[in-house]
Amino acid sequence: MQWTTDSVSPGRSAAPRRHARPYRHVGVALSAIAGLVLGLCGAVAAHAEDLIEEPISLSGQLANGTAYAITVPANWTGTLVMDADLRSATNAEGRWLAEQGYAVASRSRDVTDWDVGGGSRDLIELKGIFVDAVGIEPATTIVTGRSLGGLVSRDALNTFGEEFDGGIPMCGGGSGLVGMWNHRLDASFVLDVLVGGGGAIELVRITDQSAADAALGSLVDQAMATPEGRARVALAGAIGGVSGRPGGAPEPADDDYATRLQTTASTLKLLLLRRSVLEQTAGGNMSWNAGVDYTHQFETSGQTAMAEALYSEAGLDLSADLATLAGAERISADVGAVEWARTSGVYDGTLEMPVLSVFTDTDPRAALSELRAYEETVAAAGSSEMLRQVVVDRSGHCSFTAAEFVAALDALMERIETGEWGDRATPEALNARAAALQAETTIVLGTPAYYTVSDIPPFPRLFTSDMLLPGLDGREGIPVTAEVTDESGALTLTVAEFGTGVELVRTGTAPDRWRFSGELPTITVTDSRNAAQAAGGGWATSGQSTAFVSGANVVGADHFGWDPRVIDSRPGVTAGDRSETAMDGGNGLAVPSTLATATDEGRRGASVLGAGLFLDVPVGTPEGAYTAAVTVSLFPVD
Question: Where are any strands of DSSP class E within 215-334?
């Protein structure tokens, strides 16, 4: 479609943009004859518009007491916009939606709160109420939400995909509930250890929320009073992905450390906000940092410059502080709380419909790297073609203009109709679309600020619904011990419960590394499910390692890789790709890496798997006995 801005005179209100799709009328019996079905579609659509002669406004409570509101304009075009939070009918967005013929159904978060799965179920119940009240099932249903509502909308799209034709989740939630709170734990842990000496704050399992918030705020203020403390605030911000861009302001200069640091400090004070409510809802603590390599997380944060500069000014040893973090007592999660989260705000990435995800460049409650987390989760599920993500050049929590939302909605509607994204989701196209939509209405929509952002750092604490839990689920993992010497020696991997050792021997030396190699203990997967149980699916195995730790010294899990193979090769069973180490541009076993997969054809019986192991130890690594744990996980796949 070619957009022009002079098709409607300024001050005129245009007719609604009718993204036409056939209505589905409740109770209409459809003939099995194809020709008659096609004839009925058009007839029902025409009749449906006649049924909505006056605006409809409904409010009430869902079964759990959640308040809801429904509005249907007289010119309803058949599209229902569902919002995970109560939406105003009188602000610019609400008036534009009514003008353009969109029905809206929204609900309050007051009852479900952090129960993200409960929020998704609320939306399904609300859609049923809409259909019963209006008498017509919408031709198109879009779900949207912001902040916690963004989490709910993503969860609803993932869990109840058949109920929605598209989605616009906004501002945060891209990493899911566990990943988001793990990342928040990281920054507060750094402050607690390096500024408070450890144990100064209730970081998890909070018994007094007000006291915990006050203690964190006091710790930040204490740190900001000294050069050493300010350096550690910068380190906490980098590890926690906290931006230094103030709300409602442009990006400060790269070396404007005063502005960036003050903003970082203000954001750090919010990191424990309402954690106790989450823990009460989940039945425990869902966050952990056992096995987390904070040196690697800092180095890959994309935010190292300010911390390095402030450490230098303060005369502090950054490496020593990172070593202190490596040796600090870590935090474990409550298994039950994590299992609860798997079905309430943690995604597997499957999308059955187009989704346009929108972020602000800087949000004090959600790192922009969550965009990367959502992208990776969706890609792992094979749904990348359904997803497009865009960023608004603005700082603040969910600080979008109406122009940005309506442009996203209009572009998504075209994607649903045409089946193709084309260039509709580019920043340039969305800004042009917003301008065109503004020219067609007297409602002031504000200024769009979509822009192209580059160099978004990876999200360090990604956790999806099928991902293994380090040290949880009662699985002890495979203990790995490495004895590193400066000149020569052997590396031995001992598998405690297997009763044999895996010896890694030096197989190569390069100017920057020592390489040790060996073999993973044989893994056997036995599948005796019947056809009904497997439902046409197969299985997959993956492995992940924690960092190698020796006292205060760490060799990251991204330096440890494998080369999987199927020992008893047969059709339908495929070895995973080689996982290269960080020294060759890979992530190693720091992230879940596929060992093997099986289709329905190859899954039955016993499959014997192995893998060559290799550890790249940087030259100059301090001597010591290094210990890590490798966990191999098995799960069914569709």
Answer: none
pLDDT in tens, 112-140: 999 999 999 999 999 999 999 998 899 99
In percent, the amount of the chain with pLDDT more than 70 equals 86
Q: pLDDT digit string (tens) for 305-331?
A: 999 999 999 999 999 999 999 999 999
Instruction: Return phi, psi of residue 479, to 5°.
Output: -60, 135
Q: Are 598 and 628 in contact (CB under 8 A)?
A: no
Residue 473 lies in a domain: no
For residue 177, tell me if it sits in a domain: no
Q: Which amino acid is at 54?
A: E
Which one has a higher pLDDT value, 46 or 528? 528
Mean per-residue pLDDT for 173-198? Answer: 92
Q: What angle do CA 220, 226, 232 make, to 5 degrees?
A: 55
Tally Cβ neighbours within 10 Å of residue 395. 21
Q: Could you read off the pLDDT of 267-277 as tens digits, one per residue?
A: 899 999 999 99
Q: Which class for 190: exposed (0-12), middle (13-18), buried (19 or more C-beta within 10 A)?
A: buried
3 state SS of 636 = strand
514/561 same-domain check: yes
Q: Is 622 exposed, middle or buried (0-12, 13-18, 19+ CB in 10 A)?
A: middle
200 and 163 in a common domain: no
Q: Where are the alpha helices (DSSP H) in 56-208?
A: 92-99, 116-134, 148-159, 176-194
Q: How far is CA 400 from each of CA 101, 146, 266, 360, 361, rounded to the nearest angstrom?
A: 22, 10, 21, 8, 11
Cβ count near 7 (within 10 Å): 11
Q: Looking at the DSSP assignment, which residues form a beta bridge with residue 544?
A: 631
Q: Is residue 444 part of a domain?
A: yes
Let me know if 171 is exposed, middle or buried by CB neighbors in 10 A (0-12, 13-18, 19+).
buried
pLDDT recorded at residue 530: 82
- The whole domain housing 568 covers 478-637
Q: Which helix (H) or strand (E) holds 313?
A: helix 304-314
Q: Is residue 423 part of a domain?
A: yes
End-of-domain residue from the set 448, 463, 486: 448
pLDDT digits (tens, 9 = 90+) for 461-492: 888 887 766 654 444 455 666 665 645 433 22
Same domain, yes or no: 311 and 202: yes
Please list, in sequence order, all residues whose beta carbon lies within 8 angstroms of the beta carbon of residue 586, skipping any fewer than 6 positions away.
558, 561, 579, 580
For range 566-581, the mean pLDDT: 91
SS3 286: coil
Residues 6+ apart with CB under 8 A from 39: none
Query: Using an 8 Å Cβ cutoff, are 448 and 470 in contact?
Result: no
What is the pLDDT of the chain when averaged over all its residues? 84
**How many structural domains comprise the chain?**
3
- Residue 192 and residue 166 in one domain: no
Q: What is the pLDDT of residues 55-103, one digit of tens each?
A: 999 999 999 999 999 999 999 999 999 999 988 888 999 999 999 999 9
Q: What is the CA radius of gyration of the chain?
A: 27
Q: Helices (DSSP H) in 504-572: which residue ranges?
A: 531-534
Question: Mean pLDDT across the stretch 251-255?
Answer: 86
| DSSP result, 158-173 | HH-GGG-SEEEEESS-
pLDDT at 595 over 60: yes
Residue 106 is inside which H or E element, if any? Answer: strand 103-107
Question: Measured between alpha carbons, how far is 350 from 158 in angstroms, rounded to an integer?
Answer: 6
Residues 211 and 105 both lie in one domain: no
Residue of 354, 414, 411 lying closest to 378 (CA atoms):
354
Say yes or no: 201 and 158 in one domain.
Answer: no
Distance CA 14, CA 33 (A): 39
Residue 625, amino acid: A
